[in-house]
Amino acid sequence: MRLSHLLLALSLGLSSLPALADGLRFAVVRTSGVTTLDALTVADGSWTEKVRMNHMAVLIQHHAATLLFDTGLGSQAEAQFRQDMPWWDKPLFRFGQVSPVRDQLAGSGIRIDRILLSHAHWDHASGLSDFPDVPVWAPYAEIDYAHIATPPAVFPSEFSASTRWHPYAFSPTPFLAFDESLDLFGDGSLVLVPMPGHTPGSVGLFITLENGRRYFFSGDTSWRLKGFSGPRQKFWASSRLVDQNREQTLAQLAKVHEMLIAHPEITVIPAHDADAQDRLGYYPQWVQ
Ligand SMILES: [Zn+2]
């Protein structure tokens, strides 16, 4: 076969393949929420302005797999909270009615193939027990942290010996503001990046749709979108309670802040910011 024919055959073959991100879609699944004061969530916030905070998961359908990024609060959330949250911290971390991901997906025919954790904090991992057979992907550092951290950060009742941990490492491939990344399906549509600080193995997830729109789920590095402008840390007392390393957390805030200056087209969604999530809508509403 002549080279030109070979190239033609290759290009025809390639063009007949679907783009890997074809049909990629995601939905924010709101599992619970609470109203609190702006000042408790971000430095220099208002002591009179009320803000809504969500507990959520991100449901992602890629043609290769269906994933959850975090689980939000699961069907055992009340019992886990009763058992593991110290009484003096209970008022700080109370939450409203729970609508677990498992229940919201019932009857949909959607089956979860893997769960990715932004980090192992109780309000992100609570729903793991509703998906006992599903592999749980997290960096080695976060799996270690899940085994040694204690309430109010991590609840032992949410993990068991049968938790199907799937540890992973990042590759030294830069992605936007980050020096390392993990391209989950090799097509650039779902890319994890390390964000150590809030916890040792915290991660963020970029979702890039077929139309080029890019979303960044930034976990708990900031609870509020406005933490990335400034940048502004959490309220100092909240940060002392929940951020494992405050200096590293601030460095991650600054990194995302710089990235947004260079790439204002990226939509950032902190894990608890209800205003940011309202704009995407909630399952069964899909973003695609
Ligand atoms: Zn957290």
Structure write-up:
With about 290 residues, the chain is of the alpha/beta class. It has one domain (about 20-280): Ribonuclease Z/Hydroxyacylglutathione hydrolase-like (Metallo-beta-lactamase, Chain A), CATH 3.60.15. It has nine helices and eleven strands. The chain has a six-stranded mixed β-sheet. The protein has a five-stranded mixed β-sheet with strand order 7-8-9-10-11, with no helix packed on it. The protein binds zinc ion. The site of zinc ion has 5 residues, from loops.
What's the topology here?
Blueprint: H1 3-15, E1 25-37, H2 38-41, E2 50-62, E3 65-69, H3 77-84, H4 101-105, E4 114-116, H5 122-125, E5 136-139, H6 140-148, E6 165-168, E7 182-183, E8 190-194, E9 203-208, E10 214-217, H7 236-242, H8 246-262, E11 267-269, H9 274-278
Bound molecules: zinc ion (ZN).
Family: Belongs to the metallo-beta-lactamase superfamily.
Protein name: Metallo-beta-lactamase domain-containing protein
InterPro entries: MBL_superfamily_lactonases, Metallo-B-lactamas, RibonucZ/Hydroxyglut_hydro
Give a quick set of tags describing it.
288 residues, alpha/beta, Metallo-beta-lactamase, Chain A, 6-stranded mixed β-sheet, 5-stranded mixed β-sheet, 9 helices, globular, binds zinc ion
